[in-house]
Amino acid sequence: MAKTLPKTDVVIVGVGWAGGIIASELTKAGLNVVGLERGKERKTEDYFMVHDELRYALRYELMQDLSKETITFRSNEKIRALPMRQYGSFLLGDNLGGSGVHWNGQTYRFLPYDFQIRSKTIERYGKNKIPPEMTIRDWGITYEELEPYFDKFEKMAGISGEENPLGGKRSNPYPTPPMKKSPPMQMFVDAAQKLNLHPYILPSANLSENYTNPDGVARAACQYCGYCERFGCEYGAKADPVVTVIPVANKTGKFQIRTHSNVRRILHKGGKATGVMYIDVTTGEEIIQPADIVVVTSYVFNNVRLLLTSELGAPYDPSTGRGVIGANYAYQVIKGSALGFFEDKQFNTFAGAGALGVSIDDYNGDNFDHSNLNFIHGGVIALTQTGARPIQNNPVPQGTATWGKEFKKQSLHYATRTLSVGVQGSSMAYKHHYIDLDPTYKDAFGDPLMRITFDFEDQDREMAKFLAERCADIMKEMGADNVEYMKELGPYEITMYQSTHNTGGVIMGAEPGTSAVNNYSQMWDAENVFVVGASSFPQNAGYNPTGTVGALAYRAAEGILKYREKGGMLV
Predict the structure, then answer these.
(1) Partners of 453 in beta bridges
(2) d(CA 561, CA 29)
(3) Is 270 left (phi over 0), alpha (psi -120 to 50) or beta?
(4) Tens of pLDDT, residues 79-91
(5) Which family does it belong to (predicted)?
(6) Residue 223, class by beta-carbon neighbours within 10 Å (0-12 exposed, 13-18 middle, 19+ buried)?
(7) 234-269 pLDDT, tens per residue?
(8) Does 543 reside within a domain?
(9) Which residues are part of the catalytic machinery?
(10) Within its chain, how far is the Cα of 438 from the centroid?
(11) Listed residue (59, 447, 47, 23) closest to 264, CA to CA
């Protein structure tokens, strides 16, 4: 029999960026909050002197153990899904802080177009521009409405940057100046300007200078060591939940974190949640935590899975298009980079930071005319200098032998003579792209694994080819002697790393028939349940999702406080 604990005001499922922000805001307002984290405790000291590429980047020290829990994948409904047993396309974070610990720190704001994509696309190009199977949605909130929450997240995290000339209007400048501009970044800027494009230093959660945020959290500036992605930051210079919002919540004395607590069900009755049931994985004991409000802030797949196993919300049925939980899964098109080989120039690309780089948005969103193109949206193009760590970076020109004397010679020659201009493309939602419970594979507790059904579409292939050509144009203008770039996008490969930008499944919208949550992240089907994260995205934009997730979390925290005071559905 499960043990029942005393009721709390709020229980949070998953303590990463979204959970940490909401815990900080609610405890500052006086609420008692319990945070359930299925992983272990983390602190900055865990990363002292651990620049170990093999341990962290290749053996995935900070990631979920796929032998214990994973997802299954299939490219279409005609084939059987199989479990992902080794990391490839994306990396699932584990322990306190979640993916917010091992991210790079690139902190863009989505464009105004992104939040009203369906209506804006029809307004400019007509309904026929959207293929019948594409299920893109407006978010039920505009950029202008979300802008104050972007501002709040950036001030908390100390984002370093300069204004995007093609982005939405800002109420304030970034709280810290942009990162340093390296020689390759300057080459990109010069080339982009010659092509009449609009470069800007990308917004970075790697601090450009020492900073104290509005909560009084002081952090040191980035050291440009190049160990950000897949690593925790030993300096605390990279904003993550463990060094920003979680300490603020802890300081109130009203936040209790329970690690090793795997939530299996949201308990509900009469259209409202009563709490959650979780397993203490150290003892195997079932525990019920009653709460007035349940906030689900784990990763995309876990958010969807918990709602489906709890039978909360209508499951999506791709054959009819009805239901909402699991609908509109989207990813990202990280294909099309241009690799430039230089004979007479050398670069120190081993130094860097996760969010050191320069971007253009001339081919992102609807910043360019799509009238004669067979796709909508686009993506951000950037030269980033994230740190060319020695094991994973060994570029040689196409046609080079893959071993032996020639390979060694070319590897040594081009180790410091190679640059890359890359693209981060959007991903549109389709009727047949979704997440559901796998009918065959289960976890250690007997619950079904999440199943992904997804592949690249003609939209993605056309967009990727177009953006790859634009990357090549810039690289050629930068003076590369040899430029290689993608000519054709093949099928989606879950075995090859692309990004950890999975989105959708509990999407946001203006009405319950086509969305799972309102623009405060409040569930239409259970007014005291809030589901926060990239699972809210009706489709994915041409950017990293974290800045938008942070903004949504601050808005959700505001909504929870309003609900606590007045009850009912928020408007």
Answers:
(1) 74, 434
(2) 8
(3) left
(4) 999 999 999 999 9
(5) Belongs to the GMC oxidoreductase family.
(6) middle
(7) 999 999 999 999 999 999 999 999 999 999 999 999
(8) yes
(9) 501
(10) 24
(11) 447
